[in-house]
């Protein structure tokens, strides 16, 4: 046993401060938690967003159904902006859309027939239908006009009223209205109807010399 008396009177050395303390910054664990350094002048790259997936194009049948529904809404509300939004992909199926609307309107009332012109003028103004496709639809309708008149005796008159705004607004030219498959008497009657319909469009065609001459020659 150690003799406590040997230590009596001797100063006791303090151990405080004798232990070397490591800063937490210098410990390996804290070093591993540091974010990696980014060299100056180097920007952090973020992943690019994926491009939006293009909407699948609608079939002709789907588009025709939408066109007919939108035409009915247009007759009631005259909301051309909504028509243009809903028929944004109509161009590829211009002929089918045109045939559907014209055949539908022929058997309806004045409100529907009067809406056909503004409806297609609005679509054409935004490049959503083309003149060639519409002319093809007209040629098809003209070919069967005499059969249509069995059920709708005034079909020739109604058709003239529907296409007059397209001529007045420059969507069509007169040479695209081809009546050559009809008998001469029927051609003459439709031309008179068309001239009369053009004359009722509030001087919209005064600037078009060809239309003015057409009207004067078919009074």
Q: Specify the CATH class.
A: Mainly Alpha
Largest sheet: number of strands, sense, barrel closure: none
- The outline comes out as globular
The number of helical segments is: 10
The H/E string reads HHHHHHHHHH
Q: Structural class from helices and strands?
A: mainly alpha
Percentage of residues assigned to helices: 40-55%
Count of discrete domains: 1
**Radius of gyration computed on alpha carbons:** 41 Å
Oligomer: single chain
What is the overall pLDDT average?
82
Under the CATH scheme, the architecture is Alpha Horseshoe
Report the uncertain regions. Answer: 1-5, 10-28
CATH topology: Serine Threonine Protein Phosphatase 5, Tetratricopeptide repeat
Folded structure, characterized:
The protein has 219 residues and is mainly alpha-helical. The protein has one domain (60-217): Alpha Horseshoe (Serine Threonine Protein Phosphatase 5, Tetratricopeptide repeat). Helix content is 54%, strand content 0%. The protein contains ten helices and no strands. The chain has helices spanning 28-32, 60-77, 80-86, 94-106, 110-125, 131-143, 145-151, 155-168, 184-199, 209-217. Helix 4 runs antiparallel to helix 5 (110-125), helix 4 (94-106) packs across helix 6 and helix 5 (110-125) packs parallel to helix 8. The radius of gyration is 41 Å and the shape is globular. The chain starts with 27 loop residues before the first helix and ends with a helix. Keywords: Initiation factor, Protein biosynthesis. Belongs to the eukaryotic initiation factor 4G family. Residues 1-59 are annotated as: Disordered. One of its GO terms (cellular component) is eukaryotic translation initiation factor 4F complex. InterPro entries: ARM-type_fold, Initiation_fac_eIF4g_MI.
């Amino acid at each position: 046993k150690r003799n406590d008396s040997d230590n009596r009177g001797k100063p006791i050395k303090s151990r405080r401060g004798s232990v070397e303390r490591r800063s937490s910054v210098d410990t390996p664990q804290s070093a591993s938690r540091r974010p990696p350094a980014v060299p100056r002048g180097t920007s952090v790259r973020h992943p690019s967003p994926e491009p939006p997936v293009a909407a699948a194009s609608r079939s002709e049948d789907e588009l025709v159904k939408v066109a007919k529904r939108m035409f009915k809404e247009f007759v009631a509300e005259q909301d051309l902006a909504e028509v243009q939004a809903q028929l944004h992909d109509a161009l590829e199926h211009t002929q089918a859309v045109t045939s559907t609307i014209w055949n539908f309107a022929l058997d309806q009332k004045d409100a529907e027939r009067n809406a056909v012109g503004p409806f297609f003028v609005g679509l054409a103004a935004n490049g959503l239908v083309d003149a060639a496709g519409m002319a093809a639809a007209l040629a098809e309708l003209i070919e069967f006009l005499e059969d249509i008149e069995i059920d709708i005796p005034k079909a020739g008159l109604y058709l003239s009223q529907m296409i007059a705004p397209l001529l007045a607004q420059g969507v069509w030219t007169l040479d695209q209205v081809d009546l050559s498959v009809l008998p001469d008497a029927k051609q003459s009657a439709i031309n008179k109807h068309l001239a009369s319909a053009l004359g009722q469009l509030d001087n919209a065609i005064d600037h078009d010399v060809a239309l003015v001459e057409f009207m004067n020659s078919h009074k």
